[in-house]
Structures are given as C-alpha cells and as structure tokens.
Design a protein that fits this description.
Layout (H helix, E strand, L loop, with lengths): L11 E2 L1 H9 L1 H9 L12 H22 L4 H4 L6 H13 L7 E12 L2 E12 L5 E7 L7 H6 L1 H13 L14 E7 L2 E9 L2 H20 L53
Parallel strand pairs: 1-3, 4-5
Antiparallel strand pairs: 2-3, 3-4, 5-6
Length: 273
C-alpha cells in the first residue's frame, strides 16, 4: 500500500525541524504540519528569554558585519547591552584569523532528498588555498556544552554532510572531500574554548545515510505521537496541547540537556526506520 506524505513537497528540512522531530514527533506535527506558531502565552520569564534570543541575533549580525569589513569603531557602539558588550569584547580579543581564506558569510546551502530538500544556514564557511574548509558557528550559550554533547547534535552531522554534498560551487566546482572539513563552535561566553570537529569519509557516509532515512521516516509516517521523554516537555511551547502543562513553556533555548541523542549517527547500521 502506498503511503501518502502529510508534507506537501518540496518541504525544506532544516536542523531545527529535524531536531524537533527527534525530540518530539508531536512538536514537529504542530509546528510544521499544522503550522501552529503561538499556542499560548509563554511562561515566565518570557521577556527575559526573548531578550536573550534577540541579543544572540544581534551578536551574529555584529560578526557578520565585521567579517564583511565594516570597521570595529563603527560596530562597537552597536553592542549596547552588557551581554553584547561582553560577547563583542571576547570576540575582538580572541577572534579567529581568516587571513588568506575565502569567506562565505551567512550562507544557505540546499540539496534535494527525494521530493524534499535539506537546507542549512551557515554562519561562516571559510576555504583556504591549501584545501582546508572550516565551518564556524557562533554560540551564545550561558554554559559551555560538553564536546560529546555537541558532537552528537544533529547540527554537527547535518552541516558537515551538507557542505560535502552541496558545496562544490564554493570550491570552483571541485567537490569538497570530507577530510577537508572541520566544524568549529565558537562560544561567546568561553572564547578560549572552541569545540572543533574534524570529518572523514566514513562519518560522511553514515551521516548521509542517517539523514536520508530520517527524511524518509518523517515523510511516510502518519502518526506523530508525543515524546515519551517528558524532559523535553518542560520547555516546549506546545506542551499544553499534550496535557503536559497548563501553560506553554518557554521557547527552546539551545542549551545542553542531560538527554542522549535520539539518533546515533555513529551507529547508523543499527537504526530501524
């Protein structure tokens, strides 16, 4: 029997939407299929949470403008809050050098997976004449996550795999080999402690197989149950739809939790979809 997808193709799968599905299929359904954006008033401290998210966006814009060549003296007055000033000072004091690199800033990459697409927005992709290709992602986490947690996150797998798959045009038409790629998370609160994740061909094969299987599962399933791991519900803005809270929770911040990843990209052969 043919199964009809509940998603109208082409649907663009991002790191956020795939992570939502892994965290809770019901959340994915409410957010991306039913497209419910604001289910209820968020719990306190909603304004503080929203403010920090906005500060993170402004910090990303400061770095973007800096990398585009706008002078520091014109940018520094824009760091107008205590968090922004600290992050900006940390960046200027410990900013990576990209001398000799070709920089692609705030770049969107996309490729087809069946009738749908995988997409990723990169803070920075830097290519060196030696062949080295760096992916930089700026993070404003309060706590520095464990490297093991970040290595397991879907973003780490998707961003490296998609660059190999769809990044040849950034390299003069020559495909980018996995061994050329390294992903670096730079933490504004911990500027001397970046997390670096090199890549290789075996990891790429596993990652791409896992991503294809994950997209296939989402596009053929007819059932999107709430997660059994109710730790995901505490901060979920849709929890009131699942009788797991009277009010909606805070919008999710990208902070480390104690949860293990719901999909192990290093053991893809053991995953059954």
């Amino acid at each position: 029997m043919n199964v009809t997808s509940v998603l109208v193709p082409p649907f663009s799968f991002s790191q956020a939407s795939l992570q939502d599905y892994l965290d809770c299929p019901r959340r994915f359904e409410l957010r991306y299929i039913r497209q419910i954006r604001w289910p209820a008033v968020e719990s306190e401290p909603a304004l503080e949470n929203e403010h920090r998210l906005e500060e993170g966006k402004r910090f990303h814009r400061l770095i973007q403008q800096y990398l585009l060549g706008i002078p520091v003296e014109k940018l520094t007055p824009l760091a107008s809050s205590s968090n922004l000033r600290r992050w900006w000072e940390n960046y200027l004091a410990a900013a990576p050098s990209f001398s000799g690199y070709t920089k692609h800033i705030e770049l969107l990459l996309s490729t087809a997976v069946g009738e749908h697409r995988l997409v990723a927005q990169y803070d920075l992709i830097a290519l060196h004449p030696s062949g080295q290709v760096l992916i930089y992602d700026w993070k404003t986490y309060t706590r520095r996550p464990r490297n093991e947690w970040m290595a397991a996150r879907l973003q780490t797998h998707l961003y490296r795999a998609l660059l190999v798959r769809a990044g040849a045009h950034l390299n003069g038409g020559t495909p980018i080999r996995p061994e050329q790629v390294e992903m670096i998370y730079w933490y504004a609160e911990h500027p001397a402690e970046p997390a670096c994740f090199p890549y290789n061909a075996d990891q790429y094969r596993r990652d791409w197989a896992a991503l294809e299987k994950l997209v296939s599962e989402i596009t053929t399933t007819q059932d999107f149950p709430p997660t059994e791991n109710q730790a995901h519900c505490a901060l979920c803005s849709y929890r009131s739809y699942c009788a797991r809270g009277i009010r909606a929770g805070l919008a999710e911040l990208e902070e480390e939790s104690d949860d293990e990843p719901d999909i192990n990209f290093e053991q893809i052969q053991e995953i059954a979809f």
